Each structure stands twice: as structure tokens, then as C-alpha cells.
Amino acid sequence: MSNECRRRIVEAIHQRGPLTLAQFMEIALYDPEVGYYVRAARRSGRAGDFYTSVDVSPLFGELLAEQIAEMGRLVLGEIDPDLQVGASPAFDLVEAGAGNGRLSRDVLDALERVSPDVYDALRLHLVERSTAARDAQRETLGRHVKKVSTSGSDLPAHVTGVVFANELLDALPTRAVVARDEGLREVVIDAQGNDLVEREVPPSTPALAEYLARLDVRLPPGFRTEINLEAVDWVRTAARALERGFLLLIDYGHDAATLYSASHAGGTLAVYTGHVVEGRDAGRPAPWLRDPGSSDITAHVDFTSIRQAARSEGLECLCVVDQMHFLLGLGIEGRLSATSGSERDQIVRRLALKTLLVPGGLGTTHHVMIFSRVMGRTPLRGCALARNVQSPGPTGPAIPAFKE
Fold first, then answer.
1. Which residue from 371, 403, 3, 365 is spatially nearest to 171, judged by alpha carbons?
2. I want to staple 149 with a disulfide (CB 3.0 to 4.6 A). Which of 61, 75, 123, 237 is the partner?
3. How many CA atoms lie within 13 A of 368 on its CB side?
4. Which of 296, 279, 284 is nearest to 173 (CA)?
């Protein structure tokens, strides 16, 4: 299948000329027939190419449900009577990049138990581009399938509730640029016979330079980095759809001051195959060109631009906090001392919870960004410890099985 993906990329280059990195990634990851993400219902876990928090244990969804329950009660007006929305209020829960629905299932399992009022009012919307993954959602959700209001490739146009996404932005097609003495150059993908190669050309759009200017970033000659215009557009679209409620994003990345500093002078683009990560190595062919369609391609998220995009659409940033402090605010420590179940179950549970918290792994490489509309500066449990966390800084190599 990867040979067919390469053939389609080469054919596209012959028809359209060299592709931007984003156009290349769109085919390699999202082509309906040969794209990496869309051909299978699931890509993570032991049998996949990487782990996410969802793969560690259903406890991640259980803890996330605690935050969603609090948000749900606020949206439904059960905390503030002035926010009452009628006798039969509805609460939209939208998962973007939902895959086969595993995370939504884990969240709904917990919501049904800890907040039946929110669960009863809930309308679930699953946003997923992969047909194979959407086809698997019914079986994955089980008894919760009755809560599904929509399942498709696009965000709903009107949302009163919560839009959330776990590791979505890092996988959106991104562009790449290199600073040279003569100015900014864009990295594009060209073909030499059946081989794919990178070239540097004048930027295909002024939006690249404008993006850096908004951040007041001046790249020194030789500096290579990624600029994800699509991630910014996605956040703006999600913000416009959110009429009242919260936008909750979980991903790995840095503030612009770190992402565009010397610690990342070669960029962050990488591929994940069989739980092995490969980044750019000067003097060697780019690993993402070797076997397109057969591996994940990802880049770190620019949190500063995400905040700018959300604010430009009228959202208020409530917090940016690393996953460890987010989960501590939701009471994960109490679950570490849980005594129910067999001794083996208790050990498995404690190991899973520690994996979600571990510094240098998921606990500190991943961050939670929470925004709101028409909710004021509502104090949320997941944001309670955000003041103790500095702006995301450089991180060393994480456990290879997890994206970092």
C-alpha cells in the first residue's frame, strides 16, 4: 500500500509541480484510500506505531470525564441559575479526531456513573476523517451508541457544550521553512524519478512570514522549523462553532519562545513506526520521504499561535497546564490509593496512573489548553494547579513509545 501512496504523490507532483510539506502530508496521512490514518480504525497501542494516554488505561477517560462533568454542569446551568437553558437542556460533547471512539467510550462510561444528569443531557458528536474508524465506532461505543447525534468528518456548525481533542493538532498537515541569508525559503517535496526529495523555494504564501511576524520571531540563517497554518485554521473553526461552553485541547508542543529557539533549530518533524521515532538527520534522506503512507508524521504544536487563534475568535484562555498538573487537579492522587479490586488490578491501575503523570513522559510533554466562551473566568478543577507550571520549555527525549 505504501508503494501506491508513493505513486500517488509522484503523480501529484508531475501534475501540479512540487508539493508543500502540508500537501505531501495530506496524501501520506489522509488520502481516502492510501493515507496512513484513514486506512485503519486504530493506529496506536501495542500493535500500532505509538502510544497515547488513551492506550495507557481507561483511567485517562475516567479522569477527563471529571473535568467534562464540571463543564457540563456549568453549561447546563446547574451551578449558576442565570445560565438555565430551559426544561430540557442539551449538552453537546464533540470529540475531534475521535478515531474508533475509544476515548469517548471511556469518558461516557465514567460520566454515566459520576454525573448521570450530564450524561442524560448529552449529545455526542464524533469527528473523524477515517471511514474505517467511523465504521468501528458503533461496536466500540456499545450501549452508549444511543448518545451519538452525529458522526462525520466535519465539526458540527453549532455547539453548546464542550469540544475536545486529544493529540489532533500535532497530526495536522504542516508546512516547513528554512531561514537563509536572502530570506525565508519554503521546503517542498519534489520527485526525481520515483524518489522523493526536499527542495527549498520561495514561500508559496505570504501567510508564512505573517505567522512569524505575529509571534515577533526572527529566525537566524540556517534555522529550519514548521509552521502549521492548518492547526490555526482548525482552532478558529472550532471556536466559531462554539456558541457557549469550552474548548479543551490536549497535545504536545511548546510556547513560541521555545519552539523557535536554538533548542529546536532543526525543526520537530518526525515519523513514528513500530514505536520507534525518527527525526531529521542532516546529511541523510528525510525519514518521512522513505515510505509515505506507512508511518505517522507529526510535529510539535505552537501553543502561542493556538492561543492567539482562539482569542481572535473571542474565546478566553482559562489555562495552559501540563498533563501531570491537570490530572492532579482532577484528583488523580486519590485514585493512586484506591483499594478496590484484586491485588493485581490495583497494581495495574497504579502503574497506569503513574504513567500518565511521569515527568519526561506523558505527564510533562503533553499539555492541556482550555478555552471558554460566555462562561467568564470559571474556576475549573483541571486548571487549579496551572499557576504552578511555567511556560512549556525544552524537554529531553521522552520514552520512545510516546509522542513527545
1. 403
2. 123
3. 30
4. 296
Query: What is d(CA 184, CA 354) in angstroms, rounded to the nearest whole number?
Result: 43
Outline where DSSP puts E strands in 137-182: 148-152, 159-166, 175-180
Question: pTM score, two decimals?
Answer: 0.87
Q: In the numeric block, which cell numbers belong to residue 195?
A: 524518489
- Nearest to 126, CA basis, from 160, 158, 103: 103
Rg of the chain over all Cα atoms, to the nearest angstrom: 21
Q: How far apart are CA 64 and CA 18, in angstroms?
A: 42
Domain boundary assignment for the chain: 2-33+172-228+259-298, 53-169+231-250+304-388
Decide: 224 and 177 in contact? Cβ < 8 Å. Answer: yes
Spatial distance between the Cα atoms of 246 and 267, rounded to a whole number of angstroms: 31
Q: What are phi and psi of 347, to 5 degrees?
A: -65, -45
How many Å apart are CA 371 and CA 318, to the nearest integer? 5
In the block, residue with C-alpha cell 465539526: 155
Among the residues of 115-270, which ranges form H helices? 116-121, 131-141, 207-214, 229-241, 256-259
* Angular region, 224: left φ>0, alpha ψ -120 to 50, beta rest: beta
pLDDT in tens, the chain (404 residues): 468 999 999 999 999 999 999 999 999 999 999 998 887 654 544 445 445 666 666 888 999 999 999 999 999 985 445 544 445 678 999 999 999 999 999 999 999 999 999 999 999 999 999 998 999 999 999 999 999 999 999 999 999 999 999 999 999 999 999 999 999 999 999 999 889 999 999 999 999 999 999 999 999 999 999 999 999 999 999 999 999 999 999 999 999 999 999 999 999 999 987 645 676 775 677 889 999 998 889 999 999 999 999 999 999 999 999 988 998 899 877 766 655 666 666 666 666 666 666 666 666 788 999 999 998 888 899 999 986 444 433 333 222 223 44
CATH 3.20.20.70 fits 53-169+231-250+304-388, yes or no: no
